[in-house]
Amino acid sequence: MSITVAPERRGGGLAGALLRAGEDALRERTGTGTPLIAVVHRDNTASARLFARAGYVDDGTGPDDDGFRTLRRIL
């Protein structure tokens, strides 16, 4: 899963709303039990907080050589 919000629109809760909408749409198509993956750069603390608040957990496999770590959640 990837979410990008324009810099001038950040800080207003838009990313959280987009994440919930995406998860809701996926849930309608697949039901529950679908694994979700978010790849977050170690320096992107705002993104890490967003996914953590939504229940994603670090799977312990990163960061990789490029500084990305993988967060997972079951829908």
From TrEMBL:
Keyword Magnesium: no
Record's keyword annotation contains Transferase: yes
Keywords: Transferase
SUPFAM superfamilies per the UniProt record, alphabetical: Acyl-CoA N-acyltransferases (Nat)
Family matches, as Pfam families: Acetyltransf_1
Record-annotated N-acetyltransferase domain positions: 1-75
Top-rank taxon, per record: Bacteria
GO molecular function: acyltransferase activity, transferring groups other than amino-acyl groups
The name this protein goes by in its record: Acetyltransferase (GNAT) family protein
